[in-house]
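Backbone shapes recur. Consider a single case.
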Amino acid sequence: MAGGSLVLAAGTGLTLAALAAASTPLFFAGTVVAGCGFGSAFLGALRSLAALAGPAERAALFASVYVVSYLAFSVPALVAGLAVSSLGLRATATVYGCAVVVLALLAAVLGVVRERAARTA
């Protein structure tokens, strides 16, 4: 999960660099890297959550995870859509991307700290 979060942050950073440089190939490369990082991070999160629930509780747990995930995707996207009219598309994308990078790095750090704490316990 932590590794995927780092790859997500790197890919989002590449995408932001592509926006600043107006580079289409770099934009697609950054998007691919970010997508791979997101997939790995999400899979790691699901794997760690699945271990916490019993077999009879997993369906409800995963349903809750997906509801929260869809809200986490849709609410910031709606806010960004509203911000475009006042900030512009490039500025909104930059702020949104920077927020993704910060959150991904925070998730990576917290994941590493949690993993180290589990090893020493």
The helical segments are 2-21, 24-50, 58-87, 89-120.
